[in-house]
Amino acid sequence: MQSAIKTNADGTEKYINVNLITTKFSRLIKKIRINVPKGTGFYSLRRTAATIAAKSGDPFAVQRLLGHADLRMATRYVQDVTVQTDRVIENSRKFIVDNIL
Questions:
Q1: What is the rounded distance in angstroms from the CA atom of residue 46 to the CA atom of residue 66?
Q2: pTM for the whole thing?
Q3: What is the H or E stretch that residue 91 is in?
Q4: DSSP code of residue 80
Q5: In angstroms, rounded to a whole number, what is the distance separating the alpha carbons of residues 35 and 37?
Q6: How confident is the model at residue 79 (pLDDT cuts 50, 70, 90)?
Q7: CB 93 within 8 A of CB 77
Q8: How far apart (Å, rounded) are the C-alpha atoms in residues 96 and 27?
Q9: Most Cβ neighbours (<10 Å): which of 4, 14, 27, 80?
Q10: What is the CB neighbour count within 10 angstroms for residue 13?
């Protein structure tokens, strides 16, 4: 990951992290003209995959899938599997089926 300086419309500057995978993913979404909510990016896809994997109840599998060095991070995903999370996943699937496929 690299850092860059971004100049806002009002002339102020801020540091941003530039992640090549996220940048390429965002360009791909624009190129194939998928209409997604603002802020949707590669991290959203990764988090959704982790949440689905967490349904297994196996934090070690989630840890391996995501490449986390620390089991505590993977455990956060496993504990996050709730009714609300199920609703979000179903809404995401519906969005993909209705708008992409």
A1: 8
A2: 0.51
A3: helix 83-99
A4: T
A5: 7
A6: low
A7: no
A8: 18
A9: 80
A10: 9
Give residue for tokens 């496929």: 101
Cβ neighbors of 32 (< 8 A, separation 6 or more) are none
CA separation for the pair 75, 47 (Å, rounded): 13
| Of 58, 68, 37, 62, the residue nearest 50 (C-alpha) | 62
Count of other CB atoms within 10 angstroms of residue 40: 16
d(CA 92, CA 58): 23
User: What are 6-46's pLDDT values in tens digits?
Assistant: 787 888 877 666 677 788 888 888 898 888 887 777 888 88
Higher pLDDT, 5 or 32: 32
Residues paired with residue 2 on neighbouring β-strands, in sequence order = 18
